[in-house]
User: Fold this.
Amino acid sequence: MTEEMTPLSPEDRFRFGCGEAVPCFNECCRDLNQFLTPYDILRLKRHLGVPSHRFLVEYAVIHTGPQTGLPVAVLRQGAEGDHPCPFVTPSGCAVYENRPSSCRIYPVARLLSRSRETGAVTEHFALLREPHCWGFDRGREWTAEEWMADQGLAPYNEMNDRLMAIIALKNRRSPGPLSLGARHAFQLALYDLDRFRPQVFQENLLREFPVDPDLLERAETDDEALLRIGFQWIRETLFKTEDGKTGADR
Assistant:
């Protein structure tokens, strides 16, 4: 049996529920290839009460994405035979309130398309049915929009869309692998906020970079504000310059 992907219109409804009463409970938390977005890492390291660099060492593996050439963070699996998620317990997810967006959105998939004429972005949704999942005959009925709201996906989608915009810009302007310096900057600004912050406020990293003063002031203590600055800084310094070259070319 293989997974099925069924498009969902805004009016389409699907039934789904998950919990300890479902026979497959916790089965989807094993043998994963779990990508972590910058916002996933922000929420998880804060939940665990550890600095971002420690989280990356203990809970993630960083490699270069074969299609994007960008640093990609993947959740480090357990060493046991079924390679469990490090946060799964017999009673469920130990970080449920701050679980990654890919866990949160399941079984819905969300895709974006951008109009070449107007630049307008449109959301598209699909329902992912995997043979191991027994949740589709349980729970209530949902539309994709209702599911997004119930799972608290709004802040995740906002931040993840910023990442996807950078990936699209990078693919247009600087295809292929990044230089070592560019990879370090990308990882620092988006994945390692607790080391990015002193670079911004003690080493004056943004001295020649225009940033909203209110946003900058909030970023001294607010991780979300700092991540927004990180996205802006990476976008402008690596992939968008006035002379038409990218920072990755230099």
Notes: Residues 4-152 form one domain. Confidence is low (pLDDT under 50) at residues 242-250.
